Amino acid sequence: MRQSPARPRFRHSLLWSVLALLFVPLVAVADPPPAESLTLPPGIEAQVVALLADPGFEVPLPGGYMFDSIQIGRSSIVCVLNKAGLAVARIKLVPSGEARVGEPTGASFAIRAELLGPDPDAQALVARAVRGIQQRDTVDLYHRFSPWPQLRIAFGGLLAWAIALLVALRGRVRRLRVTFAARMHHILPSVLQLVFFAYWALYWPPVRDHMLFDVPLQLAFGLLFDALLALTLRGVWEAGFAVFPIVLSTNLFIWFPREFMWLGFLVVALAIGSKWLFRRANGTHIFNPSAFGIAVIGLLAVAQTGVRYQDIALQLQLPPNMLELIFLLSLIPIVRFGLGALSLPAALAMLTVLAVVPGAWRLPTPFWPAWFLSITLFAGDPMTAARHFSGRVLQGICLGLGVSGFAWLLVQLTGLDYFAKVFPVVVCNLAVPLFDRFGQWFDTRVLRRPAGIPPPTGRPEWWLRWLPVLAWVLLFVFARTETRKSAIFDPHLFRDLGALGVVDSPPNADRCAANRPWCAPFSFAAESHLRRN
């Protein structure tokens, strides 16, 4: 049957619309608003200590007091006053432009003092320190940086690529095609990740700015990069939601300061490029795209090439039920795609290492939000998981052991285990053919069942599908008790990290009395009551 002429015209119009979109970001950043990012540069430790010269840093003060802790963040500084090892007050320095009414300010900072309990002596020392900081704060320490030149280069490069593609094709532009497909394995993770970000933003305000500025720019860059790469390599681009889970999952694990915003675009480009360039014989991509992009940046960071990134692992635990939310969200792909056979063995392997290896208490536990996210929603990509039940079990075991092994190795090399959440995922992706060969042999020869993932209903081995899910639920409920949850809650730390809703408690007071949602498991009802009031 002869194709109607309306269809090709529609495809060509859609193609030209995609190429025209390249001009939109370029025009948008051609004359941007005068937005600047304020950051504290490295190497200012001595200047910060000098601000506290009166009454002094690490100087014993009358009554057993001492300013013995200074935490320098990306744009703020926290000085803690301790007495007998317990925090009794703190002074927070933020950009002077963020000063509230009545707060003392200097050239760099607005000075916020906070007592953690009624203590007249501590109040006098804090007032003395505030006056000293204000007198010595005469030089602006902040580094001001505009991201707009990086955006012009990034989107200008895409525009140059599009022009080169059109010039190379000349009169053959009509051969390029654009189709559209909405695939569930792209839509489902995107929705889950958006729910995750929405909940996180309720308790940590930087998430809102990041989702309104950095993430949309990365999505625009990713869509255009994916379109140009597909049209260049195959002449066909399947528009859809494939880029969304890549960008969103990347931003669950790593952020970049504005002066290194180009690294965010590089991660997205590497992730999308890995989907197109590294494929198996059956056409599926080898690597979890986000894991591949982050792993490359991780290698650069481990090699101490000057790459700077923002560690957001601690901030992931600021919402009171973050771990519970990840668990509930992970049940959807675990049940739908049979991924319980991967996540459960990974968690058990990590717990086994903690139990049997001497000194392993320093290694990660699976029930910490960042690590839990890695072995569930991140590693549980059905496109890069083993295709057989026993193969997924072996993949999960290797993933859990790999996380613990990489964490130990990276601590020895760099002192940080940040990228141990990602490197094992990439290694396990490479080894999937080995896991599948083992899974096919074990399923057919030992378990004497058809190879593959058991369906949720119907065939006699359906219990193999649901047994890991039941065991996963029981393991989480057992591990997430009130005793264990409250043991890791530190209201002072959470407040210093910028968590909303946390009430600071005086020394020796019950920290959970005023912060019930952060201490009780599955405390969504208490959390809702807290937010209403």
If you had to describe this structure to a student in words, what would you say it looks like?
This protein has helices spanning 6-20, 23-28, 45-51, 120-136, 148-169, 184-201, 206-212, 214-233, 243-253, 261-277, 289-302, 322-337, 340-356, 369-378, 389-414, 423-430, 432-446, 462-479, 482-487, 491-496, 524-532; strands at 37-39, 65-72, 77-83, 86-95, 109-115, 143-145, 177-180, 236-239. The termini are far apart. Mean pLDDT is 83; it is low at 1-14 and 24-34. The chain is of the alpha+beta class and 533 residues long. Helix 8 packs across helix 9, helix 10 crosses helix 11 (289-302) and helix 15 packs antiparallel against helix 17. The chain has 21 helices and 8 strands.
Descriptive key words:
four-stranded antiparallel sheet, 533 residues, 8 strands, 21 helices, two-stranded antiparallel ribbon, alpha+beta
Strand order of the largest sheet: 2-3-4-5
Radius of gyration from the CA trace?
26 Å
Strand content: 5-15%
Give start-end ranges of low-pLDDT stretches: 1-14, 24-34
Helix content: 40-55%
Find the count of extended strands (DSSP E, 2+ residues): 8
Please, what is the average pLDDT?
A: 83
Question: How do the helices and strands follow one another from N- to C-terminus?
Answer: HHEHEEEEHEHEHHHEHHHHHHHHHHHHH
Most strands sheet? 4 strands, antiparallel
Number of helices: 21
Distance between the termini: 66 Å
- Choose one word for the global shape: globular
- Which structural class matches the secondary elements? alpha+beta
